[in-house]
Every structure is written in structure tokens, then in C-alpha cells.
Amino acid sequence: CAESRKSRPFTVIVEGNIGCGKTTFLNYFQKYNNICVLSEPIELWRDCRGHNLLGHMYEDPKKWSFTFQSYVQLTMLQHHTLPTNCPVKLMERSIYSARYCFVEKMKRDGLLSKPSAAVIDQWFQWLLQNTPINVDLIVYLRSSPEVVYERMMKRNRSEEKSVPIEYLEQLNELHEQWLYHKTLYHCPAPVVTIDANLDISSIEEEYEKCEPHILNKLAVNTRA
Ligand SMILES: Cc1cc2cn([C@H]3C[C@H](O)[C@@H](CO)O3)c(=O)nc2[nH]1
Q1: What residues line ligand 1, using a CB cutoff of 6 Å?
Q2: pLDDT-derived band at 130, boundaries 50, 70, 90
Q3: Which residue from 74, 170, 182, 217 has the least number of CB within 10 angstroms?
Q4: Which residues, 6 or more positions from 39, have their beta carbon under 8 angstroms from its beta carbon?
């Protein structure tokens, strides 16, 4: 998108469990050329100056969770603050799910020591207050652990091969508390919930449910 813009883009974050279909959702919106689509920078997490931090984290979470989540927070901040001329920015996950779902889980499991969790949280709180992290809409791809477990195993990502369904159950619980029941932490934007259990053949009509929320921001901006 070429037109130069003054205000920041309408920012949408796509949230949900491992295997819930975030990439499929992002791909659906690739057809609009003035949406800046930012997928999870998993390749950075797999190669941080030659180190596969994602692999380390799953191999020895007690030892590597802090290192991994500290880098995730940086890469998410880079996406949140990435300048774009596009009227809409669509991000896979966010600095919020990093803190409220993944760090929270590792903290509760004792995989992140209390001092490590404190340092990550101090960074998180400071960043929220002092950097331009603006989120306008959350798309919650709501799924059940059994469904996403099967998809995760079928996708067969090497680092995830020994992730137990219990991990997905607990991650699901945190997403539900944060985005559906809204009893966990503050929700930074309105939430549109999608039934992500739907099979790929019928999921597109489910996507159409949230298209207006996103596209009307395109229309407004292109008209202006
Ligand atoms: C923001 C954020 C994304 C994210 C992903 N992950 C893991 C879950 C998946 O196995 C993989 C790709 O999403 O990385 C994580 O442990 N912590 C995270 N924090």
C-alpha cells in the first residue's frame, strides 16, 4: 500500500491455542493488498544468532523458558511497533498473549522461576506504558484441546512432537479466561470470537463474520 498516512494502522491481533488455525486465518486475509499481515516470527525463535530457542524451550523448559519468552517479547514488540502505510495491521498473537497465556502458564508450572517471571513482567508493564502498542480488535480463534492436539500432531512440527494434550488444555483455559470469560487479565480491545473447531471446508464462512470489523477500516481509510 503506497499512500502515505499520518495516523497509526487499525491493529488486529489473532489469538488462540497452538494448532487453532491462525495461519489459515492470516492467509485468508492476504488477498487484501493494503493489510499488513505479520505472522508469528517463529523462524526467528528457531534461529536467534544460530540458536533454536524454541527447540531449547521444549527440550528443557526449566532452563530455557526465560530466554525464550524474553526473546518472544522482543519480537512481538518489533511487530507491534513496525511502521506501515497500510490502514490495517493484522498480527499473529501479541505481546499480550505472550504475557497472559504463555508466560503465565510457565510461571504457574514453575518453569519460570519467580525472579525470572518478575523481570519479564517488569519489562512487559514498562513496555505497555512507554511504547506505542495499540490494539483495536482481537480475533479469538476459539477451539477445543482435542481438536487442536490432533491438528498439532498432524502438522508434525519437530519441536512440538512431545507436547502433551494437558499443555493444550491448560493453554486453552488461560485463553478462555483471558478472552472469553474475561476473568484473567485486562482485555486490551473488543473480542470477536470464531469457532475454530470448524473444519477447513466450512471455516471461511466463519471468517466472513469478522471481515466487516476489519474491512470497514480499510474502506474508511481508502476513502479518506
Ligand atoms: C506470543 C507468544 C507466541 C508463542 C508461541 N509459543 C510456542 C507455541 C508453539 O509451539 C510455537 C509456535 O506458536 O511457539 C510459546 O511457547 N510462547 C509464545 N508466546
Answers
A1: 18, 40, 42, 54, 72, 76, 93, 97-98, 102, 160
A2: very high
A3: 182
A4: 23, 26, 92
